[in-house]
Amino acid sequence: MGFPHATSCIAVAIAACSPIPSHVMEGHADGRIAVEFPGALRDHMLRNMRDHLDTLQRIEDALARGSYDEAARLSETRLGLTSLSLHGAHDVAPYMPEGMQAIGTEMHKAASRFSIEASSAGATGDPRPALRALALVMGQCVACHAAYRLKP
């Protein structure tokens, strides 16, 4: 039978190192791990994911305007480690496979690191380290969505 979490760990490793497979983008059966949340928590999780996307768009806009402190604040308060209680992470984590939890935790850590780099860009005038850090945040989003999906 193997280890219960071995499949999710393998999926995470593949997703983290590979581009999204073309069959995922074409809408065919995609082989992602289906994760089941109770009804209300499923809706909560979907709202969180939409909020994450909205926040990433707002961060990109702030960076484009040179508003590095605003980008840093958005990242830390909406995505970073200090946002965990805001998004009810304690409530949804028990329903996530171990690999999904690991990706989520790394995304939140990466967002906090981005916040530091964005603040530094305000002092140095060089946004490149912040942009690299933001790419790492989004890389976690891509890895999770490539490896997992919510059951309807």
Task: Describe the protein's architecture and organization.
Helices cover 68% and strands 4% of the residues. The chain is mainly alpha-helical and 152 residues long. A two-stranded parallel ribbon has the order 1-2. The chain contains seven helices and two strands; from the N terminus they run H-H-E-H-H-H-H-H-E. Mean pLDDT is 86; it is low at 1-28. The chain has one domain. Helix 3 (39-64) packs antiparallel against helix 4.
Q: Report the helical percentage.
A: 55-70%
Q: How many domains is the backbone divided into?
A: 1
Structure summary, number of beta strands: 2
- The shape is elongated
Q: How is the largest sheet built, in terms of strand order?
A: 1-2
Strand content: under 5%
Report the total helices: 7
Mean pLDDT equals 86
Query: What about the largest sheet?
Result: 2 strands, parallel
Can you describe this structure in just a few lines?
This protein has helices at 6-17, 22-25, 39-64, 68-78, 89-92, 98-124, 128-147; strands at residues 33-35, 148-150. With 152 residues, it is mainly alpha-helical. It has one domain.
Topology, please?
Layout: H1 6-17, H2 22-25, E1 33-35, H3 39-64, H4 68-78, H5 89-92, H6 98-124, H7 128-147, E2 148-150
Parallel strand pairs: 1-2
What brief labels describe this structure?
mainly alpha; 7 helices
